[in-house]
């Protein structure tokens, strides 16, 4: 997405400079490495302004300038490349029903360290917050001196209220109105205010920025995480809905006399394609349902029961195709492992239930980021304040997280 | 929606002036009448610039200045009101399965004349285009001298390709890849290029601008027009999808072993809440199915069969609530007449199948524009070029449509 820079007349000069600095950093962050000429083209500002912005990013420890990596084409001076430097980083958390992943992610979206751990079976939010902090200690242990922590982002399989990060409902964690943001922020203190996002929304964000949906403005990311949620991007923007609750695709009515869903209704789509239904179809033991994806990796042929699940998946996807007309549908979570087994059945149902015009435009595919879509999305969420105002965010960033967390 | 005016430095002055003139006209058009002070506030430009823009709109015959209608509050000079003048108008067409409505609509969204007629039972596009032109002749007969026709917009119950206005599929007209835009434009010649829109999309647009969804950024408009389509507005913008085909909510999979749908699939939602299903439930004769809304006006109590339809309606709406989290759902077409009969059943199913967080935020309601949502939406579509560039559009507008159509 090209973003035109703002010119300075009629608005506060300092605001404009900060905005342009953030925009430039955003381009560098998303590309990892970008030529100054390309940056100039994307921002629609003149070369000397761009040179000034890049110099400022360098002095802030956020970017390096380097000789171009590619072959020189044409005459004229070769443009200098701008690389993201990991002088600033975030902590990203992927909280799943079956486990916890914490990563230290540098500018440019580079995972510098990661740690995983279990979650307590009772999903006690206080115990989970303690585990999150324990894993954070591990990943910041060898952080570069003076590197600045600029954000903490978490992906949670639930419905998050935007105002205060209250988890309104995370059915598979058994959470109703759990103030997890508050619980975790009490443990992190002044290090950084954690920001929570719905796991599917973050998966969509990451796949859009760095995965199977780069350059795609209409995308659906399906998270298979016991239940099934969707992160939807329409016209390049996240589908939020009135309260930020959009995307609960697992609760589309699907079978009128179907199984009872944990939400209280009967026959929601996820009663047929959720982890318990799939586990039943492949004979996965109850205690392994949380790690269904791994179990499915060991399955090499679809049983007739699994093929029924595949058809339910395809029929439901057709509904998403007809209503949302996406260019790409990314199947995340355990759906990553399921899809290769039942692709034919999915395609066949899509063929029958998808209307021709939108069906011809859609690609159903696996995540470009493998199993890390949500983790990367959590990192992107945490980077947002830095990209909005690099100077302002750095001014209040924590420079010694290791000691702060040890204390 | 407040729209900041553009300042002139760094861009082409003439472009900026045209843009600001269009933005000012847009505010006047949407409000019908607006004080100059309010216009100044909404555009974020200074008073003398606004005065200049309003004077130019006056000289173009697009606006009048008038003494304020309200009581004077506070000291200071009272602000002058700016009113839309009908020096420019559009022709709006609502093409339904059961009939055709054509209206002459002036700036401010005022219907100045309307005419209705039948559509041939075989839905031959050439014959329908002839009927459209016949009705146009009627509504332009007493048009003011020198009034300028600035656009022709049509609402069609089908899937329209954005590039060229090809009707890819209008199942209830029996149209597949019908170049109706081309057929009609051959009849209109240089008068104006017709622009087609999906009926539900236009209903959503009109309800958002002038109906039950004013100020609401997340809205679903359901058109009941034999089949059922949705126009969806998310975050204040139309949900287009990759190819402009989004909104085919009638083809959400609903009953796996349900009735065969005209789309070729089985059990689409509209097989249960479409006009034929409702007609069956209320004993509406086959030949009146096209005018089901009128028939339902004569029904005063829901039969058990109709209550089943109401429950299907509610269950499907819950799916839209869970996936899209809209603030308002507007029920248009024959659903306007159905809803009051089955409201309790709709509400009961919404209660069961809607997740609490999004359900608590949604209002299911009737159109603010009665049966004219699509017609008004077609008019808004036709006004768009004028609002984008008033001077440019007026320069090529047709000033004597009456003679041109007679020829």
TrEMBL record, chains A, B:
Gene3D superfamilies: 3.30.420.40, Winged helix-like DNA-binding domain superfamily/Winged helix DNA-binding domain. InterPro entries: ATPase_NBD, ROK, WH-like_DNA-bd_sf, WH_DNA-bd_sf. Pfam families: ROK. Belongs to the ROK (NagC/XylR) family. This is ROK family protein. It comes from Aeromicrobium ginsengisoli. The lineage of its organism: Bacteria, Bacillati, Actinomycetota, Actinomycetes, Propionibacteriales.
């Amino acid at each position: 997405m090209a973003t035109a820079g703002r010119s300075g007349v009629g608005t506060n000069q300092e605001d404009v400079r900060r905005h342009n600095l953030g925009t430039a950093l955003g381009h560098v962050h998303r590309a990892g490495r970008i030529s100054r000429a390309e940056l100039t083209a994307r921002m629609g500002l003149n070369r000397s302004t761009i040179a000034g912005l890049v110099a400022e990013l360098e002095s802030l420890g956020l970017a390096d300038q380097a000789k171009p990596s590619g072959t020189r084409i044409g005459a004229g001076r070769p443009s200098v490349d701008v690389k993201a430097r990991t002088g600033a980083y975030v902590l990203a958390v992927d909280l799943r029903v079956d486990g916890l992943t914490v990563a230290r992610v540098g500018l440019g979206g580079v995972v510098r360290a990661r740690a995983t751990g279990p979650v307590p079976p009772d999903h006690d939010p206080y115990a989970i917050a303690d585990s999150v902090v324990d894993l954070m200690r591990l990943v910041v242990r060898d952080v570069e001196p003076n590197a600045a922590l600029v954000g903490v982002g978490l992906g949670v399989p639930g419905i998050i209220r935007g105002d205060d990060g209250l988890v309104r409902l995370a059915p598979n964690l058994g959470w109703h109105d759990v103030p997890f943001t508050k619980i975790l922020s009490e443990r992190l203190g002044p290090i950084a205010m954690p920001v929570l996002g719905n796991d599917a929304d973050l998966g969509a964000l990451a796949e859009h920025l760095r995965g199977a949906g780069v350059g795609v403005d209409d995308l659906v990311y399906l998270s298979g995480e016991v239940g099934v949620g969707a992160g939807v991007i329409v016209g390049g923007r996240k589908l939020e809905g009135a309260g930020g609750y959009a995307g609960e695709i697992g609760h589309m009515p699907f079978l009128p006399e179907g199984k009872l869903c944990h939400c209280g209704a009967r026959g929601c789509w996820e009663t047929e394609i959720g982890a318990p239904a799939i586990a039943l179809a492949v004979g996965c033991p109850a205690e392994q349902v949380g790690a269904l994806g791994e179990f499915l990796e060991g399955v090499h042929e679809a049983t007739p029961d699994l093929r029924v699940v595949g058809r339910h998946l395809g029929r439901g996807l057709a509904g998403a195709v007809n209503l949302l007309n996406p260019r790409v549908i990314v199947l995340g979570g355990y759906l990553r492992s399921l899809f290769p087994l039942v692709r034919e059945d999915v395609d066949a149902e899509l063929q029958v239930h998808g209307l021709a015009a939108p069906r011809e435009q859609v690609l159903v595919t696996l995540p470009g980021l493998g199993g890390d879509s949500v983790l990367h999305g959590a990192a992107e969420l945490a980077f947002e304040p830095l990209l909005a105002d690099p100077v302002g965010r750095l001014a209040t960033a924590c420079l010694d997280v290791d000691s702060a967390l040890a204390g």
